[in-house]
Amino acid sequence: MNVAVAKVESDSTTFNIEAIRREFPILNEASEKNSVHFLDSGASAQKPDYVLKKMDEMYRTGYANVHRGAYTLSQLATDAYEGARKTVATFLNAESVDEIIFTRSATGAINLVAGSFGRAFLEKGDEIIISEMEHHANIVPWQLLGEATGSKLKVVPVDQDGNISIDTFQSMLTNKTKLVAVTHMSNVLGTIVPVRQIVELAHANGTAVMIDGAQGVVHSKVDVQELGADFYVFTGHKLYGPSGVGVLYGKKELLNKMPPYEGGGDMIEIVTFEKSTYRDAPTKFEAGTPPIVESVGLAAAIEYIENIGQDNIEIHEDNLLKFATSELQKIPGLSIFGLSERKAGIISFNVEGIHSHDLSTILDSRGVSIRAGHHCAQPLMKKMGVEATARASLGLYNNKEDIVALAEGIKFAKEILT
Amino acid sequence: MNVAVAKVESDSTTFNIEAIRREFPILNEASEKNSVHFLDSGASAQKPDYVLKKMDEMYRTGYANVHRGAYTLSQLATDAYEGARKTVATFLNAESVDEIIFTRSATGAINLVAGSFGRAFLEKGDEIIISEMEHHANIVPWQLLGEATGSKLKVVPVDQDGNISIDTFQSMLTNKTKLVAVTHMSNVLGTIVPVRQIVELAHANGTAVMIDGAQGVVHSKVDVQELGADFYVFTGHKLYGPSGVGVLYGKKELLNKMPPYEGGGDMIEIVTFEKSTYRDAPTKFEAGTPPIVESVGLAAAIEYIENIGQDNIEIHEDNLLKFATSELQKIPGLSIFGLSERKAGIISFNVEGIHSHDLSTILDSRGVSIRAGHHCAQPLMKKMGVEATARASLGLYNNKEDIVALAEGIKFAKEILT
Amino acid sequence: MSVDDLRELYQEVILDHNKNPRNYGELSDASYTADGNNPLCGDRLTVYLKLDDNELVNEVAFTGKGCAISIASASMMTTVVKGKTVKQVNDLFDKFHKLCTGESDEAELDEFEDEIAKLRVMSGVRQFPMRVKCATLSWHAVEAAINKKDTATTE
Amino acid sequence: MSVDDLRELYQEVILDHNKNPRNYGELSDASYTADGNNPLCGDRLTVYLKLDDNELVNEVAFTGKGCAISIASASMMTTVVKGKTVKQVNDLFDKFHKLCTGESDEAELDEFEDEIAKLRVMSGVRQFPMRVKCATLSWHAVEAAINKKDTATTE
Ligand SMILES: Cc1ncc(COP(=O)(O)O)c(C=O)c1O
Ligand SMILES: Cc1ncc(COP(=O)(O)O)c(C=O)c1O
Questions:
Q1: What is the pTM of this model?
Q2: To test the ligand 2 pocket, which listed residue (B105, B135, B298, B348) has its Cβ within 8 A of the most ligand atoms?
Q3: Which numbered atom of ligand 1 lies nearest the CA of A212?
Q4: With CB atoms 3.0 to 4.6 Å apart as the test, which of A177, A391, B277, D21 could cross-link to D75 if both were Cys?
């Protein structure tokens, strides 16, 4: 395993992990209080200097509200904001820039689909299929929708290894299935879900598909045209961008058929007290002042990772995941949840006799940040028969030392607690 | 007028306009492209260095996702985020910190009230009263709610000077009036609405009240307990804070009776596929990763203006408004919209024979940024019989030179266009 | 952006068209009408079209309110689309749009040489990207009308 | 946060209570029960209470899963609330909470002197603000039970 990691580090001139680490200020502020072995990127990633500077600069030299002013600063801000939309569209290979809607987060994007598409097109008795390993963000909005419309949730089970059965999924599709909403990648198990196949089967059934790409987009290249999904959502802060911004990709035709979700400035055409008319997507879905600088920051993050190369990042993380898996498996009493053939930079595990919360506290004392808990996936926890797990999740800036520190820290925790 | 301005500037040792201007980086980046006479703060304000540094610093030294980690960085971020909530609560003099919900913007906050309070408690035939000078953000959400529930919109007219008649308002209250939603301050006319009186009358009628404070909170001290409104909303970017964050204040009792608006992580108590239960406010209304750094930035902005003193800002802006009004009134053919006795830092106007768009372009060439258009208040434009107006809006950093440049620019536009 | 750019934008011809717009007014017997609407500034124009038996633009007129750029551009538009086929109007709009955004330059000589020569006076908007929408508003409307849509919305 | 802080948090007494929790199990004839729920980490406890005729806590027990801190704290809680009145339990919780957050210190001598002396071993959580919720989870539940609520949720 060591060899593989060493290989990518020496092979690729573009991927120099030490140089990359230097570009993330927080990793270098090695105070006693701050963790330098940051293994919670799955919750939220750290930001490169490049992104922070872009945002700061915009506020200092080119900030004003967008779309509304006929003066230079507003034009600069509008160009930056609409330029960010273009960057996202190119990143996802969307057919049109109009298919990109900036939201407040992935959660905001999923709720938009539920509130607009869901309330407009789903009726009592209609069905939505999700998987058993969804994040709460891809469960609760459909439950709220169910309360409003009478639609029902059907759940594809997850097996021992953390995979869903495509056959089972297919057998659950009926003429009442109006939407399939599944994660691209599990935030607990790391499983990469075969979303392409799911889209094909759903479409053959006349069913629309939304993919929750909050984790997926971080760890693999996404091409929405190739994927064919009707909606794809992700969140900026996990992709090395700022908090406060997310993205909803939607097929233009579909978006233009959908009613507005929220009302306010900019999204309207003509407002009278009797009746208002709305503009086309994406504007129709961006009521009020959008997350202007946040969108520009997200675009900068995309530029940053594209500059490193998504393939390079994938290889690096893959090697690191293999190394981490083998290091952790050496620890007696440690069991890993999620052993799919297709998984990416996330490892959930528990250590016999040690609650993940205690483990996290002890690791923290050694500068190792991991997450402990249910990871906003309580139904999956229940299925796995646990209350909580420990989770280490990788970012492009992690290195072998981080993994070694994790393994050593776990051993130390065993000493203290047992 | 000159005297009055000079007076406040020399009187108050805390309010030194030149020192303040130096704290706003964008005002000092006097490149050819950038306006230095920024008179569009009503659309979005510029940010002081203090706010920018706070946000940048958080990303560099204390960033992680909030509420979810048992490690130090997450604790630091959570403390900063919850500390921001406390700052906002104190700023508004809320009874409890649990009454402060961070949203994506004022628009997001109003839609939350419409989607949660509105959908839960309004029925067919119920009435919502708004005023004729509302921003689209406080019109369209109620129209969307009306489509969903059958509730109706009633509109208090605005008179010549830009005031609403309290008698008329009172006469419109019926036993079907379930909500009054009015602006604290008109973003077109500058009128300060007598919201205290409105709350009293509405409450005497058993009607809940939401105040749109997007402009109001910027120009006057707000005390929600004294005001008594059930909801008060505002937006960060107009209050010298970042884009991507807004605030909903709501009375705790009421918030806890309301159903969730959006679903996702953090806002839940227990999730099963059969049924989920939700936490209390504010968490119930903050689904998913919130605008973490943006909220901290907003709190920094509040600290900044509190440090200068809201009273000092009010006096400064008031003097400047009087100066601007008298300067503009000297220009032949210029007419001002909105002449309420109680108005704050906004002047809308038109110049005979010159469309505001052309005026804005010409002013921009002289470094003066104003806004031209309908200002997201089409119904008010219709009432005033115009398609658009020019609008100069003041921030705490504006000075007399900005006003002089505006007046000179208007004269120049007349030369060019007539 | 300089004062020269401004003078280039607000040329005499444009100010004249703004003050004395050609073909201003309703056409009661129009074959097609469409509204042009710029939701961000509130400008609204209505364009009226009459086609003859050969589907050529026979008469064209407009009403509405807007800035000097949109009114002048609408006025000039009415003077150049008369006698054109539907396809020609679409093509001409395409060329005019490029002229306003700076995508095409003056050198292009083709079937619309004369029309473009007339319209070239609008090319000052290149320096003012926020105003391109103003210059093209009436064109969006005429395109909508000729393609039998009710409304055109620019951003 | 140092290794000393850690050792202070995970003292022998705590590890012992975690491994051998006192009064663990259901009380089938409980007067009141309540769930304690930490939605952020998924820890859940149930507390069972029996009051005698004088409204004193007669028996108390708990079940559930959680981290060492929450289990140990629950176990210790059951050993100190027995024999107390409703008001005394509320007061004791208040004092314990202050102990965990560092608001009160060791010097306080009052009616709960003995109990606080026992519970003081938990005060290591002061250095770990994220873990205060763990230490107080069972207390929130017992407070809910005694005040006749079903559930307590900590953040
Ligand atoms: C799979 C998945 N979906 C959705 C989300 C929600 O993202 P956000 O909290 O940014 O809305 C997350 C992260 O928390 C996630 O991991
Ligand atoms: C009175 C008023 N209400 C609401 C808003 C909406 O604010 P935002 O766009 O930040 O949601 C604005 C500003 O655009 C406003 O002026």
A1: 0.94
A2: B135
A3: 3
A4: D21
